[in-house]
Automatic annotation (TrEMBL):
The chain crosses the membrane at residues 6-24, 114-135, 141-162, 191-217. This is Zn-dependent protease. Keywords: Hydrolase, Membrane, Protease, Transmembrane, Transmembrane helix. The keyword Electron transport does not apply. GO terms for biological process: proteolysis. It holds the Pfam family Zn_peptidase_2. GO terms for molecular function: peptidase activity. InterPro entries: Zn_peptidase_2 (IPR007395).
Length: 224
């Protein structure tokens, strides 16, 4: 039973990552009709929303794109910063979607930011407490570890509406500004949807693991 469980939690993120890699690889080879680079797309959307104070920087790595709310910077990986592809446009627009959320004080984004320190503590200490509890047969330690882990799981769960909303904003912007044509909307959505799968997979695995630990704890309680 446990072997099947561990296979499942390994397969889910691997499957999601394969979908992302496949979609990105495919549509990074499809040139966008606007011929705009990811940087130009990001700048266009930022300026159209009055976000002149948000800068754009190139960053190393593949799909390492992100928005930094503290520095007010959209960071795009090299291929997306310079690329003219549908994938580059989609990802750049998605990251700007987070900048727009920040500007408009989107509730779930604010909640996620507030959860960061708690989630970090939960991720770092939950397993230590759980392992101590299991080794010593101390259910109270396991329960404390579960509480810490629940904070990290909540962070993963709150991330979902943040990411989906950013993708919806991205689609609205690239369509409204004429960055993509009608026949490119389907391709752009495929890139954004594939990227969202990684967050869905991470949340699903986190929830499954939390439920497994709760079952372990209830089993320990019955044995006490």
């Amino acid at each position: 039973m446990f072997i099947i469980y561990f296979i499942i939690i390994l397969i889910i993120p691997l499957w999601a990552q394969m979908r992302v890699s496949g979609a990105y690889k495919k549509y990074s080879k499809v040139a966008a009709s606007s011929n705009m680079t990811g940087r130009e797309v990001a700048r266009r959307i930022l300026d159209s929303n009055g976000l002149y104070d948000v800068s754009i920087e190139e960053t190393r790595g593949v799909l390492s794109d992100h928005y930094d709310p503290r520095s007010k910077v959209v960071r795009l990986s090299t291929n997306n910063y310079h690329g003219h592809s549908v994938a580059a446009c989609a990802i750049a627009a998605h990251e700007v979607g987070h900048a727009i959320q920040d500007q408009q004080e989107y509730a779930f984004l604010r909640f996620r930011h507030a959860l960061v320190p708690v989630a970090n503590i939960g991720s770092n200490f939950s397993w230590i407490l759980i392992l101590i509890g299991m080794l010593l047969g101390a259910s109270n330690f396991v329960l404390l570890g579960i509480i810490f882990m629940a904070a990290a799981v909540l962070f993963q769960f709150v991330t979902l509406p943040v990411e989906f909303n950013a993708s919806n904003r991205a689609m609205d912007e690239v369509v409204a500004l004429g960055i993509i044509r009608n026949d490119e909307e389907k391709e752009t959505k495929k890139v954004l949807n594939a990227a969202a799968l990684t967050y869905v997979a991470a949340a699903a695995v986190a929830i499954l693991e939390l439920l497994r630990l709760i079952m372990i704890y209830t089993g320990m309680q019955r044995n006490d």
